[in-house]
Amino acid sequence: MERDTDLVRPTKTLKLKSFSSTHNGGLIKDQYGRTFDYVRIAVNERCNLRCVYCMPEEGVDFLPQNDLLTTDEIMRLISVLTENGVKKIRFTGGEPLLHKGIVSLVGFAANAGVKSIHLTTNGLLLEKVAKPLLDAGLTGINISLDTLDHQKFVEITRREGVEKVIDALNLALSLEFRSVKINVVFMRDFNHREIGDFVELTREKPLTVRFIELMPFDAHQIWKTGKFFGAELIEKEIRRLHPGIEPDSGTATEHSLFKVPGYAGKVGIIPAFTRSFCGECNRIRVTADGKIRNCLYSDDEFDLKGLIRNGANDVEIGKEIRHAMWMKPEDGWVAQRQGDHGRESMTQIGG
Ligand code: SAM
Ligand code: SF4
Asked: Is 314 helix (H, G, I), strand (E, B) or coil?
């Protein structure tokens, strides 16, 4: 088995650029030449599941509602972000479908001209809102589903519901979303033997199954249990089952994207822990309490909610966003060395 120390490998070295144009309009940039046109917005922290890798059974210290961005404040940020060149939005959480304003937020983003609007959800509440979300302008949906087995689902999420999530997936596939993806956090002994079943889902359906490396967050102990299964091993396992898989073109985080010849869908591998894609990172993260995190692994946060509530204008908010992203660490390993994760769960960051 791979050990943590075997996994530390350098990411592509980035070239340092001068500070000059960072506050002068155009795309949001950092000092290493990366540009940021994709924002992930966590609309809440709460959730109706308790996935073992994300939260303890009793949940985490959720912030009081007043500390979270309101729907209007999220809309304000969407306006500023789009004025600053952001072209793609993903709504996440917590569980974004627990947010009463989620359809309005999607509609607002669509009206602001955002052409690529995605949502990551556990799918439990999708049935009622799938069509309204599509009509409001949602273009893509990622459903998190780590197992197809009833009992394993209960073990992983500490709740019932796999049948509901599979129904949600079928519903999403029957509607006209531009993309439907499944997020599978890949874990030794929990679900690694289901890899073939997940790949098989791509035979008939035009969906992408994405196997995601487990990431360490401290509130849950799963990281220490030997469940980690690295991207290289995931690929090896897929190749063992399907020696003929072919590379396919993908986005920044999906550079390991494959297709089984003749299958309708695709299979992706996301090296979320080994972080071999930092050089291509184009994401801005906004937490539910209105902070920018310029890297998933960084503890530095830049307070947009404070600015909004103190009456800052759009230019000032835009400058803070640019400043936050300019300060982005060179890669996730550097970011991790600079602090020790102030947030205890992915539900507080948005994944
Ligand atoms: N509740 C929604 C869901 O589960 O899809 C959205 C929020 S969730 C935090 C976003 C994504 O982060 C999910 O696909 C989830 O599987 C992933 N995630 C959460 N904790 C993780 C961890 N420790 N390692 C890897 N992925 C994780
Ligand atoms: Fe909830 Fe998503 Fe975290 Fe699971 S991964 S507990 S569904 S926020």
From this structure: helix
